[in-house]
DNA sequence: ACAAAGTTGTAGACACTGACTACATGCGCG
DNA sequence: CGCGCATGTAGTCAGTGTCTACAACTTTGT
């Protein structure tokens, strides 16, 4: 929680708060302006369009996602790449579960302007973080024959799918299941095998 | 391609066509009415709200998804549950790639009214189809200790994540990768192991 | 057969949205 | 000081979803 100094930052913060409190549905330029105590046209002084404003929110989301993964992998042995990869999974879904609104926004190309350079930079950084983890894992024998970026893409997709479907409650009604961590454990079991060191979530 | 007999069916068909041609962005009640050659209020005579109309479109999407998976698994040996499961993966992403607009809509709870009974029924049927495949696979030794619905949820999530991120082009820029089938092959490799019978896509 | 009732489509209105414009205010800097 | 420029305001425009009144047509009961 950092204090909003400029109006620009306050707008991004207001949007973030709205997303996590009210969800992604009613978000809009005028609503953000209202909550920030500004006139309906004020945001356009700082962002040329609503999409750019939301792209800035999403970029901050990617930074938070990066940090969440960083925190998760810091709890396990630095010399165990497989454990770090498994921990990263929990960091990913933990961010999604903790900031569902922002997470939902980050992958909504119809809402946030994905052409925004900040969006691309932060998104790429988050993915790059995972690729590094994958490279380390490959170095200790985890599917060393596969292209790192592709392997990372598949692992990302798994966590992304789990988080997405969980938030959309598309699985819950039929599975009667809300424990996201349990599903991540299963996913890790499938991907990494039944190692006891990675079958439990960290910290 | 079946001929639209009632106005109601024509509206659903018009929305479908729009989604696959123009994407999900500009869809709306008035736009659908325009394309169907009706006045802007006509759709509300058949659907109480835009969300219900789109829910009907999504429900038809779930039926098509079901059919796509059915086609995919029909190409492999009926007595090989693992091969059928792997084939189902291709059926899933093939539908998503072939009908990106409808696929995107199906999991957008802010757009289509997920409380619609038809939506819930068809969505549940599609998931049930996967659960059956998983049960068969468990019977031949594929993680028999896990809860079928949870295991199915994880597998669904993986395919869902791959399709979602692929369509959002969120992975493409960093991975430089557009071959969805290749990613599915990797995902199957991770989940099912390196059996040559499932490492290639069917048909 | 004929009128009543229901169904279906139209047209207008309302509140709302994102974006654009003209205008006012206030700040920094030569 | 005074000129720019950045910032915020208010009004406007085209567009949206939804509601309502109304017209036309179809079905139904007697």
Chain pair forming the biggest interface: A-B, 45 and 45 residues
**H-E string of chain A:** HHHHHHHHH
Unreliable stretches of chain A (pLDDT < 50, length at least 5) are 195-200
- Counting helices, strands and paired strands, the structural category of chain A is mainly alpha
Shape of chain A: elongated
CATH H-level superfamily of the domain at 51-192 in chain A: Tetracycline Repressor, domain 2
Q: Output the CATH topology of the domain at 51-192 in chain A.
A: Tetracycline Repressor, domain 2
Q: How many beta strands in the DSSP annotation of chain A? A: 0
**Oligomeric nature of the chains:** homodimer
The helix content of chain A, as a percent range, equals: 55-70%
Radius of gyration of chain A: 18 Å
CATH architecture descriptor name of the domain at 51-192 in chain A: Orthogonal Bundle
Please tell me the overall pLDDT of chain A. 90
Q: First CA to last CA of chain A: what distance?
A: 23 Å
Q: Look at the structure and give the CATH class of the domain at 51-192 in chain A.
A: Mainly Alpha
Main beta sheet strand tally, sense and closure of chain A = none
* Tally of alpha and pi helices of chain A: 9
Strand content range of chain A = under 5%
